Amino acid sequence: MTPAEQSRQALEICRRAAVVPVLVIEDLAHARPLAEALVAGGLPALEVTLRTPVALDAIRIMAEVEGGIVGAGTLLTPADVAAARAAGARFGVSPGASNLLLDACEAEELPLLPGAATATEVMALLERGYTMQKFFPAETSGGAPAVKALGGPLPQVSFCPTGGIGLGNAATYLGLANVICVGGSWVAPKAMMEAGDWAGITRLAEEAAALR
């Protein structure tokens, strides 16, 4: 899969909703009801971060939820890419980008949302063919003004800003011409998951989906 095709597919996924939930799942029992709650609320693209021992199993379970598009976040190595693909991930997200990681995603045919935080990083990914990128960490890298500024010299690149984004500032990013969606964890609070408040998470998802 070429970087251009990866970006085309990543763009299609990002266009599904205003927010891509960034999920840290510690209890495997939460996987299915969490995915069902978020999809019911209008957020079909789900990023499960590979930060916990149960993350890959959670992807396997969530991939079975009708209407969901489950991806793997925090991809760092070719081994991560292979494991995520084997678990059923339909897209990948990385905090940055290395040639080894990019090569692995292209070989595994896993659409990737590669991370970039500077004009140089954005340009390097664009040279390779990636026109859909993750701007990370968004708030500490200049926030919405930085993303807007990149749109001047690099209008052909679209972004999913992630990092420090919540309900209070998401609309500012989403109002930019070069932002397709944002990534955020606020739609799946740990306390709500532990309490099994899936209806509450659906309400948060509905609120986030309405931002577009």
3D architecture notes:
There is one protein chain. The chain is α/β, with parallel strands linked by helices. The protein contains ten helices and nine strands. The protein has helices at 3-14, 31-40, 55-62, 78-87, 99-108, 119-128, 143-150, 167-174, 190-195, 198-209; strands at 19-23, 45-49, 69-73, 91-93, 112-113, 115-116, 132-135, 158-161, 182-184. Strands 5-4-3-2-1-9 form a six-stranded parallel sheet, sandwiched between helices. Helix 4 (78-87) packs parallel to helix 5 (99-108). It is globular, with a radius of gyration of 16 Å. The mean pLDDT is 98.
Quick one: overall form? globular
Q: Strand sequence of the main sheet, in spatial order?
A: 5-4-3-2-1-9
Briefly note the structural class of the backbone.
alpha/beta
Helix content: 40-55%
Q: H/E element string?
A: HEHEHEHEHEEHEHEHEHH
The tally of beta strands, per DSSP, is: 9
Radius of gyration, CA atoms, in whole angstroms: 16 Å
The end-to-end distance, rounded to whole angstroms, is 30 Å
